[in-house]
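User: Here's a chain of 88 residues. Predict its fold as tokens.
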Amino acid sequence: MLLHRCGIKAMKSMQEKNSDKKILTNEMATFIVLNTASIQIIPTTVIAIRNSMGSINPTAIIVPVWIATICAAIAGITATKIFIKMGK
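Assistant: Prediction complete.
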């Protein structure tokens, strides 16, 4: 919940500096993509589910989750930058 409030506060701060309030700035679009990519440091929910289902090693998913979320973030940022360049 705290991160959610911080994200909203950051977006409001960026919107105050935005000259055209109806259009996202490049920074706002990049922030939304990074927030949506949701990089997981420790995927506690999935670990808890795996543990409750009797997994022998419920934490074995940590490295694959890191790889997947980092790839998602890189792909999202790359796509955002491409679309920003195409829009100019």
